[in-house]
Amino acid sequence: MRSHLFHMLLFAGLLSAYFAVLLRDDKRERIRFGLLLWGGLVGGALALAFLMAP
Amino acid sequence: MTAADGNGGDRGVRRTLLSVFLGWLVPGFGHVMLGRVRRGVFFGVLLWASFGFGMAHDARLSLRDDKQPLLTGLQVVANLGMGPIDPIVRLFVYGEITYSMTAGDNAVQRVEKFRARERSPLSIYGTAYVWTAGLMNLLLLFDIWDIGRGRRGDA
User: Fold this and answer.
1) Is the model's pLDDT at B136 over the cut of 90?
2) Which of B46, B122, B153 comes nearest A18 by C-beta?
3) What global pTM score does this model have?
4) The complex's ipTM?
5) Contact assignment for B43 to A17 by CB distance below 8 Å
6) DSSP-assigned letter for residue B57
7) How far is CA B110 from CA A17, B84, B85, B88, B103, in A?
8) H or E stretch including B64?
9) Å from B27 to nearest chain A CA?
10) Where are the domains of chain A?
11) Which residue of A23, B65, B83, B135 is surrounded by the most CB atoms within 10 Å?
12) How far apart are CA A14 and CA B11, in angstroms?
């Protein structure tokens, strides 16, 4: 699999799931934190990519 | 504190240390040892999947280079975070358990294998998954310690 986008989405998902379970104890908090982290990672990477090559 | 309490504390520390060691030996197993089965299974599946996915994508198994000792040394630490599976996969990839780019008789062949893997277009992805799996497991060892010492809740 050589898609940068696919790996970025998957890698962000992996990290988000890991840190959500590690750092939050409540199920709702985990989902909220995981989604927030995933969005931040993906959004941050896309924003950085746009700034570097607009 | 009574003598019995002291012994209980020692046993608790020993059990926690054993769990931390088992958590390094088999990622996810340390939590299971402390009764956190679901947490252990979750992290185990996540880490093993990341590691396996990385290896399937030609992950670079780092070798310590004397020209860049700090950076390559840290890469080796990240690799070793997954425990004994790291030397096992090195045996398959390099034909020997090795962590140095220059040491030993097979250095030239080893570097060739390392460079060939590095040239793979998939290697950057695979390396990220494998290093991350190792670093995540190292972080989990602190989680196991905290659980063992009663510093975390029941979740």
Assistant:
1) yes
2) B46
3) 0.89
4) 0.90
5) no
6) T
7) 36, 20, 19, 16, 10
8) none
9) 13
10) 1-52
11) B83
12) 35
pLDDT tens per residue, range B8-41: 677 789 999 999 999 999 999 999 999 999 999 9
In A, minimum Cα distance to B38 occurs at A21
Give phi and psi for B153, each to the nearest 5. -75, -165
User: Would the CB atoms of B125 and A15 count as touching at under 8 Å?
Assistant: no
- Joined together, the tokens standing for residue A2 give 């050589």
- Which is nearest to A21 in space by CA: B78, B44, B51, B83? B44
In this prediction, residue B106 carries a pLDDT of: 83
Tokens (6 digits) for B141? 């060892």
Tens of pLDDT, residue by residue over B76-114, are 999 999 999 999 999 999 988 999 988 888 888 889 989
Q: Which of B121, B139, B143 sits opposite A2 (nearest CB)?
A: B121
Chain A: closest CA distance from residue B3 (Å): 35
Asked if B155 and A25 come within 8 Å (Cβ–Cβ), the reply is: yes
